[in-house]
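Before surveying the methods themselves, we first show a specimen of the format, giving the amino acid sequence and backbone structure tokens:

:::
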Amino acid sequence: MTNVSKISEGLNIATQTAAKMVSKKVVFNSPEIPGYRMINIKYADQAGSLLNPKIETLEFTDKNGIKSAYSSKKLENGSRFEVFKFSDEIIKVLKDKFGQIKVLKSTVAEHNSGNPQKMYDNAKEAMSSKTRHFCG
């Protein structure tokens, strides 16, 4: 028993817990299409503000589930991780704190060999177009 207690004294067996975050969820129902919704969720840590969230998501859903989504997470070093989800493709982007694309990966293999900035701009424009179309 003494050996176990000596070992456990030397180990830091306490685990860190996730920081508590506040969130705000806003749901917009489409005036044109019944059951079609746009959901915006923002997460900020207790010290932060929802005006400058650490995590932000935007989803377009209907009665069958999520049609497309965008998520953005601000990392501790200032980098940003973004994910664009469409019905036929998922694009993951890691940008440095200056906004330069470091890595871009797509589930469509032939898109990985193209220009990353153009791919990112196309995905961003597709989400913007969906938002503009939703708002009419």
